[in-house]
Amino acid sequence: MTDLDLRLVRYFTAVAEHRHFGRAAASLHTTQPSLSRQIRRLEGQLGARLLDRTPQGTRLTEAGEVFLPRARALLRSAEQAAASTRAAAAPSRVTIGYRTNLFVTPAVRELRRRHPEAEVLTQHLGWTETRAALLEHRVDVAVTRLPLRADGLRVTVLYDEERVLLVSADHRLAGRKSVTLADFADEPLPRVDDPDWNTFWRLDPRPDGSRAPDGPLVREFEEKFELIAAGQLAAIVPAGVRFSRLRHDVTIVPVDGIEPCQVALATRAADDNDLLTSACKTLEAHLTSPEAAGLTAR
């Protein structure tokens, strides 16, 4: 049995990602000769050469290509094991993740009142960040919108939320009482690095099997806003996100004939402690649909 030093494994992944010993050494805050020695130690433990130096930089050997995904998985597993252990040892802390316009403040206040001995933290989550934030133990419970891959998670749907079209204030569809998919079938819609998100929020593929026109790949909330306001694309968004109250150069138009999105509560499937249970119950009690709160798109 080979006992691998995780520090050496981390050094190897850094060189593999940078494809250069010098840049990897700088990112690890070590020297290049020291890094080279550590890589040789790892190769000695494994009995295989992992990296070759070339005039162009560093390349993975065949053995290195095989080891790299396993090395990354090993580091992730170690981090998750450490995070799980910390969580089990200190259930007096809970971190609540939330998506844009899913307001958790009233629930957080009540939790802090009910559990003055506990640390109740919050963290905003990006469009496609929920699953990773939970599995990496950055948050313990997330208030999110579906779709969300549920394997390894426990997901409870809270309510449905209409989807609407977000366009520039001077768009040809602005001011309409409602539209159908046919009205904006040729509009480019933004993409993200998540196929499930793209399928649902771009209606791609369409009911007739056709593909949605490709808009730009966006990563930031404000980036999408600017492109829509400039008339370069439209976007399907949740009705509860009150974009038109944030700025006057965009507007929302109700969409007929498409299914709503769903707001849900998600935790890690294996997690179970009194503070987490209390957090989930409090969030469920406080979270309200846009219709019930008087925040409909119309």
UniProtKB/TrEMBL annotation:
Domain HTH lysR-type intervals? 4-61
Keyword list (alphabetical) reads: DNA-binding, Transcription, Transcription regulation
Q: Which Pfam families match?
A: HTH_1 (PF00126), LysR_substrate (PF03466)
Q: Which residues form a coiled coil?
A: none
Domain of life of the organism in this record?
Answer: Bacteria
InterPro entries with a match to the protein in the record = LysR_HTH_N, LysR_subst-bd, WH-like_DNA-bd_sf, WH_DNA-bd_sf
Report the SUPFAM superfamilies cross-referenced here.
Answer: Periplasmic binding protein-like II (SSF53850), Winged helix' DNA-binding domain (SSF46785)
Query: Family per UniProt?
Result: Belongs to the LysR transcriptional regulatory family.
- Its name, as the record gives it, is LysR substrate-binding domain-containing protein
Q: Which organism is it from?
A: Amycolatopsis plumensis
